[in-house]
Design brief:
about 150 residues, alpha+beta, 5 strands, about 50% helix, rod-shaped
Length: about 150
């Protein structure tokens, strides 16, 4: 522990840089969007100490905390613009709702198979069952099963 204290006393830049890199590595692993701003704040404090601004550990921790709070609050606007409300474009299942599908295996007992978005899916029918080759519309996605109804 004394080695760490001695390193901080001699080169606080390396301690803050290590904190920033560690936070950035954890952020890269988990993609939470929350650890990015503390990592950036630690980097700013590292640059500040490298430029010769020495506030001591309590002062640097205060600057780090203040920068983290400010950047996190300001980032909410950025994240809201980058991730607008609505279906996630990477969520293929939710994008299926409302799409037309073609019946590839006739519905027997309310269950059959449909082809939509380049793949066959097991499906349940709501209402009257169309024949093979006819179109249906996807109403819901429940796991790997679609709920469909005859297309109008």
């Amino acid at each position: 522990m004394t080695a760490l204290v001695d390193l901080y006393a001699a080169q606080p830049f390396w301690i803050w840089l290590a904190v920033g890199v560690l936070l950035l590595a954890v952020e890269a692993m988990f993609s939470t969007e929350w650890l990015l701003w503390p990592a950036v704040s630690a980097g700013v404090v590292a640059v500040m100490t490298a430029a010769g601004v020495r506030l001591g550990l309590p002062g640097e921790v205060a600057v780090f905390a203040l920068l983290t709070v400010i950047s996190t609050l300001l980032s909410r606007r950025l994240i809201a613009k980058a991730n607008p409300e609505g279906p996630d474009i990477n969520d293929r299942d939710s994008r299926l709702v409302g799409q037309r599908a073609r019946v590839v295996e006739a519905f027997v007992g309310g269950r059959g198979r449909v082809f939509v978005s380049g793949a066959e899916w097991p499906a349940e029918i709501e209402g009257e069952a169309p024949g093979e080759g006819q179109d249906v519309v996807v109403k819901r996605v429940d796991g790997s099963r679609l709920t469909v109804q005859a297309a109008v």
